[in-house]
Records
---
Amino acid sequence: MNEKNSSENKGSLVFIKEVAKYFMDFLETDFHKRKNPKRSIQFRSSNNLLVGLNLNKYPSFYNLVWKTINHAFDKNAINAIQKGVYKTSIPKNLLDLVKLQIEKITNKQIIKVINLIADEIEKSAVLHKKEYDQALNTSLESAARILKEELALPFIGSIEKSLENLSLGDENNIYLMEEELTAVLSSLLENKISEILKLILSKEKIDISKQLKEVFDLSDIKITINSFFEGFQVGDLFAEIYEMERNRTILDKQEFYLYFCDITFNNAKFPVFYIPFGIKKQDDVLEIEFDSQVYINKKAIEYITQEYNKEKGKKGQLKTTAERIIYLSQHQNDFPNVISEILNEITNFFELDRGIAISSSEQQIAKSFLVRASNNCYLALFDKSDEALVNDYEEILKLLNAGDNVLAGAFNKLIDDFIHNNPKPFNSVVEEEWDDTETSDRLVFNSPIPLNGEQLQILSAIRKDDCKYIIVEGPPGTGKSHTITAIAFDSILKNQSVLVLSDKKEALDVVEDKITETMNKVRLDKNFQNPILRLGKTGSTYSQILATTAIENIKAHHRAVKKDYDELEINIEKSGNTLKEDLEAEILAYKEIDLNEIHELFDLESYYSNNGFPVNIDEVLDKPESAIELEEFRKIFFSLNDKLIINQDEKEKEAQLFELLNFSIDEFKDITNFQKYLWLLNFLAPSITKIKETYINEISLLTIFERFDENSLVKLEQFIATYEDEKNWFFGYLFKKERIENIDKEFKKSFYLSSQIEPHSILDDLKKIVNIYEFAREQKKQLDEKFKINFDYLRFVHHIIIDESLLLILSNLIQVGDDLKFLNANLQKYSSTIKKLKIDLSSFKTLCSNELIAISDLDFDRLIRFINLKQKIEKDFNSIPTLNYANQKKNIESLVTTQMTFLLDGRLIDFYENNKATAKALRDIIRTKQRFPKDEFLKLKEAFPCILAGIRDYAEYIPLEPEIFDLVIIDEASQVSIAQAFPALLRAKKILILGDKKQFSNVKTAQARTDTNREYLNNLKDCFTKCVSDEGTKLVKLGKFNIKTSILEFFEFITNYNAQLLKHFRGYKEIISYSNKYFYQDSLQVMKIRGKSIDDVIKFSIIKHDGKKEVAQNTNTLEAEFIISELNKLKEVDSNQSVGIITPHTNQQKLLVELINRMPEKDYFYDKLKLKIMTFDTCQGEERDIIFYSMVATEEDDHLWGVFIKNLSDVDIEEDGKIKAQRLNVGLSRAKETMHFVLSKPIDKYNGSIGEAIRHYHFILDEAKKERNVSEVDEKSKMEPEVMNWFYQTDFWKKYKDNIEFIPQFELGKYLKQLDKTYNHPSYKVDFLLVYKDETHKEHKIVIEYDGFREHFKEIDEVNEFNYQDYYTDSDVYRQKVLESYGYKFLRINKFNIGNDPISKLNDRISALIKNGIEKNNVINHIHSTIEGLQNGEMKECPKCKEIRDYKDFRDPDLVTGYGRFCCHCKGYTLVDKPAHNNTKDDVEPIGEKTCPKCGSKMILRKGRYGKFYGCSKFPYCRGVRKV
């Protein structure tokens, strides 16, 4: 098994070596010309731009250049070129000769050329009918040959003598001129030949000559040749270099180089040495700064050596050119010797007839039969160097050949991952985790910058252990740089290292700016030098970071944060927890709102609008517990009616009691009056009880009498006296029988007796009865002292004692007292309502009989339900927390940023303090661009966990060591070839690729010759099948090692996680609409809300072109002049908007640059308006507020077909179809605020895809105008004019109306729908957009949502799951908070929360949102105060306790100065206790969710007459209650 693995590994290494050699050869040659090295000498590009300059033309400057070379490019030798100092004079007769020869070109010659080319195209199509690429290459080569033979050679020959006489043309320069003129003429035909071949191969009949004539007529050729020779008119070095500088901005990824000494083979001329330099224009001076490295054109020398050896039949190679780079800092004293040694070896090896003496600036030419060399010097524009990457591949090959097992193991792992293994997927894992994440956790997280869901999921994927290869695709304007910044911050916080690479300096600038901008928000100085390391030619920050001032500032900041670091960490945790809790509270508050209840309420409102309210509803609604109190009132009224209004037939006993009490309801004026009567009744019951208790054994005697009253007692006493008189003390009634019988008869007549008795026989009992009633009389006397009794008390007592049921009725009646107390305390609150209910507080009787009693139970329940619903819904809406999510989130971001800066600062300080010598040495090495000691890099990486570098030169600093970084990020990955990225993959534990396949790919790889590339791929395939595998699926993967594959495409086979950024932040939905529709299938979610007229967003200006032929092809002077006039308009209003101009043609770009550079306003345009003039090919990564599109084409002259694809559906069919389509996507997505199309023919006259694009925007413009007119309201919405009327009466509008746009009918629903396809915007919402620009020019955008429930619910019968399930869900809250984090504010109003004064309420809420700025956190304030104290000397750090203390704490009267080095705390003078922070919270009784015991509905905390209780939310239909 081990032998098999070993064999597989060896095979993989053989394959890797072949890959490395393939990639290295491409980087050195571009495969653009077969075998020839790419860096050769040329003066004009194929589109006729000046890219090279022979310095022989300017002898004095040429001499100065050689002086500079001999002084090892000392800065003092050449540092500036002034206008008019270095000049040459070209005789006018030469220019006249050129024009004369141009006029001699005839139409006959052109027709001959066209016919010859047509024949060659036809032959190629026949010979290569199944191989389009081969047919195209053959046709183009034949066309170039014919153009050279028939036009270029004769023309150059006619002026050759004159050129030689002026020292402008040795034989090699003449050859080069012929080649370049041929290339310029060929460029006129390339696109058309491609188109013709497509038609022929698709078997369409075509007149080839006729097609060629369309783009190659006599006038075009004359203009082209004249333009080619225009450069000869320039006689000022300043002007020529400045033209090259302008051309550098036109071309992509070009640098200035000085070439010195050249070598020629087979008429091809190459520089021997070259050095990059930078140009900076200051008025009429060009400042020049040379690089600190001179490069040897090693590939060219090796190529000539190889070809020379073949011709001569010899072997061998040059030894002095083994290294590519000469570091000037190492050869300050012997640089001329190093150069001379190389030149001497060239002289000897190629057997030249003389040597080149660099000490002399006189022109020297050394020749042999095949090779020639000279000391000529040139200025050139050329692609940025890939030397560092080539060196990387050389080192890879060297180490692999030497048997480096570590590197071999890393490569084998990479091959296993890409070829043999299937990647472990993480998308579903990350998505499931996200789906399970609570809304509050989605919205609250520890990051220095705001992040959306996509970015948080990307971070989650990066944190997974086995998730190594990650792709993030980012369409235009979707925040790729923001995502990179977030990932970098996350890595720093987790103590991990990250390397950010890109081939675009601008992309690295944006990331660096975002990092710096974020960190400086918490720095005291906004120009703080942060420890983010930038390496390479794209700009290094190491020296600035290690400058003494920067280090001291970083130390001060670190010490200040360290002092409060524990508090900082606590604050981060608490702030996060607080915001989460606030969010949860808001979500819960929204859940309380039930649309069914709102629907029910509006039904009830409708009922009462027709039938009227029995109460004063405003008065009732104003009282929070009115529903409960009304119900209590009604209960009491019923009770009073029941107890006090007596029908004798129905309630005999009650009538009897009232009769005993002599009670009449009419006698009572008010409640107080009746309450006094109740006090009497309250005393009656105890008095009865006392009688019973006192005469417990005798009380039953009272039953003898059926009736008894005051008179009865008098009579009874009289009868007893009579009986006593008649009775003998000894004989009794023995002798008075008749008399006693008569008395008995009289007695029985006088009283109502309950039974037949003989009164005389029970005299003692009668005496006892008298005693009882006498006792009762005594009780009455006591009552008389307090109350006036107007009834027969003894009669009352008698009946109550005899009939117990009357006592119960009395007790029941007494209970009315509590009810009356309640009425007395609360009725007066409802003065209007009781009046409406016909209740008169001065007439107690109306309490017993009124309208509240009269209405039916159903009607009363309906009323109570309405009151409950109205109050509940208003309370629910007003209970929604006014949470300022954005500001609270920014507070957390500031705290986390402070934490991150502390960690970064600490690492740098540790490196600086412990490695001072190394730190300073590295500063000098990086500053002077010496060879970087890679063995010191690990220390550098520890100090700088986040490093930014260009992908072409990072390898100069970072050793070729596997997994040296935790994470490597490659930005703009669609433009990075696998050949460029491959070595970076080795250096990473994890790799994240960001790019967009639908934007530009690598231009060089796209232009690489197919046949050359195919040879390499065939060799690679042979090696792969032999050494790795011949399985079909693995051979498919092998195809991705093609240099034309971007690293983005390469990763598709190995990615563990793939994400797409969909939130578009750059422009409005109308601006990105074309790209969104045709390239991203309407998947982009546009975050920017348009707050201005569509006419200010999409503009069309049709220029009336005069049809005249332009001097240069593919230019349009009238369009250029119109755009310049628009720029002047912007200057007139002192606009602060940035401006870009995009055109399809390089010549139009050049024309615009030339015209604008002649203007006195040019500095304003470039500096204030940030003007950049671009083509569709060079605008990727750029963005401007306003983009002008100069489309150039007229009805007479239109070459757009060569720039843009004819039909987007033919991307894979049309030659360069992919790039031609990408131009549309990239070019039409650069604007942030305005797209302004400048056209020279009617819109319907534009053909192909560019015509469709222009018409698309015209359609979008028309459709947007139809959507609404901001000056009109929607007739269907009754609330819209009402809300507008409120707004226009606010103080806010009156005060700031000149700075306000208030837009009705704002279609928020459409906006949210494109963010979330599942979203359905409720039709009851009326939306407005308020845009206010404050005095600092900050724009506030407030979305005002009015919930027009009433109108909506009139349209439907019921609310159910099919229309609206919830008013505002978790998803709605999440969506809103995400928008808030991007700067939008929401104001949600409706009839339930607008109050009784909607104008004031609206004004207050808008003002609060505008004023609501973020306040600095106390911890950060304290840190800043500490930093200020350290910097101004008011505070310092004690070296003993390491605490930062006030300067006064170092006071020591025992010392000479009065102040010591150590603080008084360390010396034990005083101990100041730091006040403890009281982190305790008030105990809060947790209230769980209560449910009704009867129906299971939610319960509401209510307050009744007996205190607080939980009542059912469905009251009065359910009366379930729970105790609190």
---
Amino acid sequence: MATVLVPGSFLPLSAAQSGMWHAQRITPGDPIHIAQYIEISGPVDPVLFASAVRLAAREVDAIHVRIVEGGQIVEEREPACPFLDLGDERTALAWMRAQLASPLGEDSLLATALLRVADDRYLWYLRCHHVIMDGYSGPMIAQRLAEVYTALAEGRDPEPGGLGSLATLLEEDAAYRASGRFEADRRHWLGKLADLPAVPALSSGTAVATSRFHRWSARLGERDAAALTEAALSHGTAVSGLMIAAVAAFVGRLTGAQEVVLGLAVTARTTPAARRTPGMVSNVLPLRLAVRPQTTFGELVGQVTREVGRLLVHQRYRYEDLRREVRGRLFGPVVNIMRFDYDLKFAGHAATAHPLSTGPIEDLSINLYDGSDGRGVRIDFDGHPELYGEAELADHHDRFLRCLTQIAQAGPDLRVGAIELLDEAERALLGDWGGAPRGVPGGTAVTLFEEQVRRRPEAVAVVAGDTEVTYAELNVRANRLAHHLIARGAGPDRYVGLSVPRSLDMVVAFLAILKSGAAYLPLDPDYPRDRLAVMLADAAPPIVVTCAAAGLLPPPGAEVVMMDTWTGDGLPDSDPVTALLPGHPAYVVFTSGSTGLPKGVLVTHAGLPGYARTEIDRYAVTEDSRVLQFASIGFDGAVLEWLMAFSSGAALVLAPAGIYGGEPLGRFLAEARVTHAFVTPAALATIPERPLPDLRTLLVGGEVCRPELVRRWSAGRRMINVYGPTETTVVVATSDPLTSPDDTPIGRPVYDTRLHVLDPGLRAVPPGAAGELYVAGPSVARGYLNRPGLTSERFVADPSQVGGRMYRTGDLVRWGADGQLQYLDRADRQVKVRGFRIELGEIESVLADHPGVGQAAVLARDDQPGDRRLVAYVTGTADADELRRHARLALPDYMVPAAIVVLEAMPLTANGKLDRRALPAPERETSGREPATDRERLLCGLFAEVLGVERAGADDGFFDLGGDSILAIQLVARAREAGLGLTPKHVFQHRSPEALALVAHEAVETAVTGDDGIGPLPVTPIMAWLAERGGPIGGFSQTVVLRVP
């Protein structure tokens, strides 16, 4: 027998309700609701219909509650059902959309109306807050309303309904959560997700869940729907199972992931009482599926059948509980199979249900109507408006329909990697975006420089402190040294070591090496001796150019040229004549290697002319430009700098030794009147804001550029993001000038370079889809020095050009709608820190070589916004200081971990693998920067106060310091008291005092209207309880008006 609810009684919230109400508090101005309308094909009596709504509502307990802190209070409610004669369906739909965009009425969790669109067509609109109702409840309520209205229309009393009690639903929920079944479900899910990789999604960002969305919808024609049904039967599954598998294959193809995790919406109603009680019970749980390119669709369908079966056994365990226990994103797109029974008749007139909103959307919700109701197959894509534009969503929807068509037409042996997602128009578009043909004449770095010598011999070529050297003077010095090197065996396909600190001698030396026909091998004097020894042994240069200050130990047998004593007297100053060709190496740069040893990259001259022309055109380099030389000679960013200057006739301005960033670099930029500079984001972040009127073009690259840096530095100048791996000629893509801090693409291909975004089967992926970036054209390096196996692995045949080669970058990217590439992530464990490319395996190998280390693991952690740090984890007897000293002997400074954490044992997943996500953040006092503005100081203080820490830095993340959604609400409230207007959504999106200071506004105090607190007081539950027992309820009361965030 159903439990009868007593008005005024207090009930707890179920776990499902608590989760939904908590989500609502994060976005108070964005009601989380579900909504539908029932289309009735026949005349309806509005007065009778309103009576039916009131009678049916009395049987639905969930309608008669008011949500309060920690629970819900039972209140008798009679929902109104106003009648609106809107005349046509378009007007009615517009009215309903407007209602959904506005808040529910004050203290109301439900809204309903009857709309007339024709004499024989009526729409019943129902909107409920998700805290009281889920999608499964809609058919129950609609069915009961149809029964009641039909009875009234026929002049009889409605028969008793069979809807269950909310109290029973709550009792079952509490009993489950206290049971062994709950613990068993918990163990299942934690084991299932123990080694969960990064979850792929079709969008690249995250956003707070919302009930607002863009929708793209289509209903399949009879022929297509029949083909889909037949395909499902051939696979031994239902249409719903086939479509879940299709979504998994679709997401895998678009993201390049070999494992996808979908969110599967489930009813979570496993008891008879739950199946007949309207209320909020539904759940969304992760469905983990392997979608490797070689997986056949038949195998995938079988996998879906097995995994969905296992999921349903454990479907009562809440998403909210999993979210608290499992780090990171739980799933990508949510699949919602809509197969509820809507076989309705209102006084004999047929009715059809139409969903308006199915609940909150975190990313993408795919609603599949599998045709089991006889109305055909329908597919809705509901995309979060902050993550998907309408055009992008429409493109995804169209591709999914093409995917379904191929699946329906092919047999079970269709492989996931063979599903074609592109149409001909997209192929043509990708061809346009991926190439920048310019036909730049071939040449070498030497011909580019010597052309400027001929054109402007008296122009300043190099500025080093107070010294200025003209192009003619620089050419003479370089020629003499080049002749000296040639006499000692330098020439094409030979390597000459270069270890000279940043100076005029360094410029003379690398130009001389290039003029000799040889490739220069940069040997940064700041590198550890052990690492330099490995590089010298690998390249075996017969000649090394250095100086006393470098302190280099040359390899045995190598001839050494000391720049501080070499004069060049008696040597010719004419341009050397060599057999140098564009295909010969220009330089050899060593980069981090995954095997534990650095690897050398042979970059030829072939790509230099095309990139030089790109620099001149896109960076607006002119003869009067002054180009900063700031990058280490061991970093190919130095090539970007000298090539920019020497191919355009500009001056190369050398930054003094000892300047690495901060105020000294800012001061030098101003005093040296630098017009063009390349600075990594990590170094740029250290430069205080100051007027730099001469700096016309600022290039950033080597790592992700934070939005705050774009805000600070893009105004008043051309700020460009550049991208290029070491295995190509410096830069292969440049962005358009950056104007929005929320959009920092890596850009378009440089001249005569071709960029391909491909899936694991080397198929082009559609615009907006993730794929690995491949580079083709003259900018591709020759390969790795003395590593033929690795060269053949990373430098592969170009399927688009006979005899062509491509370089596999390992970077995951996607094409944006504007034809610019957007960087997403790495496909391997390689990372970028402060602009340097690092293989974590090399650091792990060095640490593991220490006799006191048992195991070693290294992560690049972003525990603070914009502060990526290397953190090492080791087991064994060695301490952190000892290991740091050991690492410095073999690794350059940028590869030495910032923190080393000694563990008793490495955390393992349920499968016995290293659980990298369980490795703890290093314990430390916050080292965030000091606040620079009054707003930043205020917010830093509020962070510390709310989070209970001693201090917070301006770039510390709120959640990195222990914040959560409840504390975010407290932070917003205290900020308002202090005069700053913020919302919890701001805290979730911007996180640091630095970023929040930019979006906060002055909180304007508004007058609070209301009564004076004098007059009749409605009876409260506690007063009713006291009156029932004969106690006094008269007395004094006090009112207060509270403002909440």
